[in-house]
Amino acid sequence: MSVLYITPGTCAQAAHILLRELDLPIGIEMVPLRTPDSPIHRINPLGRVPALVVDEDTLITENSAILPYLADLKPDSGLFAAVGSPERAQIQSWIGYLTFDVHAGCFRPFFRPDRYSADASVHPGIRAQAIEQLYLALAHVDRHLQGRQWLVAERYTIADLYLCMFVSWLPRLGNTERFADLHNLARLQAAFQARPATRQALDFEAAR
Ligand SMILES: N[C@@H](CCC(=O)N[C@@H](CS)C(=O)NCC(=O)O)C(=O)O
């Protein structure tokens, strides 16, 4: 039996939504974060989600590894692409961009300014700058989407899913007007929200 460890509302949501897209026989276990007694510490030494344990003994961490791994289990889903294809590299390129520039580069300083300065008086400035950096990072994506329905190829892939999970975090920043001119992103986001797998995962997490 394989198990995906998640915490509602975190970046583990991407792997959770993907599991629902693929309808794979993998269990889902909810864990609390940042509490010393959380079971996640026995699973992942970093204490982070998502964490996927395959067949009870093989740990895979990082969205950038888990999303491609899961999508490869059902290649006919079209959510990833064939080994050796340029599309596959393009999807991986977007996943790398989202992990580094968007998640670690913008959301992390916004949500965890304490990691960047122990001086709480500068945290509002760190947060404000994180929003500006995020705007620039997402404006790049929005320009790429001009005249395109999806990030890569002519279909919804794990790159779109991962992107839209981050876009769904924007209301948490308390400054949605800053992102109001990113119309291509808003269009993609509406398509993501309408997918049954997205709804199932979000409803499941909201009920916990
Ligand atoms: N680069 C990792 C980031 C994982 C990560 O930071 N997860 C957060 C939730 S969004 C977490 O578990 N934080 C708990 C902690 O850092 O203690 C990935 O994409 O999987």
Structural account:
Residues 84-208 form the GST C-terminal domain. Residues 1-78 form the GST N-terminal domain. InterPro entries: Glutathione-S-Trfase_C-like, Glutathione-S-Trfase_C_sf, Glutathione_S-Trfase, Glutathione_S-Trfase_N, GST_C, Thioredoxin-like_sf. This is Glutathione S-transferase. It holds the Pfam family GST_N_2. There is one protein chain. The chain is of the alpha+beta class. It has 2 domains: 2-77 and 197-206, 3-Layer(aba) Sandwich (Glutaredoxin); 86-195, Glutathione S-transferase Yfyf (Class Pi), Chain A, domain 2, CATH 1.20.1050. Helices cover 50% and strands 9% of the residues. It has 8 helices and 4 strands; from the N terminus they run βαβαββαααααα. The protein has helices spanning 13-22, 40-43, 63-72, 86-111, 123-144, 158-167, 183-194, 196-206, and strands spanning 2-6, 26-30, 51-54, 58-61. Strands 2-1-3-4 form a 4-stranded mixed sheet, with helices on one face. Strand 1, helix 1 (13-22) and strand 2 form a beta-alpha-beta unit. Helix 1 (13-22) packs across helix 8 (196-206), helix 4 packs antiparallel against helix 5 and helix 4 (86-111) packs parallel to helix 6 (158-167). The radius of gyration is 17 Å and the shape is globular. The two termini are 22 Å apart. The relative contact order is 0.14. The model has no long low-confidence stretch (mean pLDDT 97). The structure holds glutathione. Glutathione (GSH) is lined by residues 10-11, 33-34, 47-50, 62-63, 99.
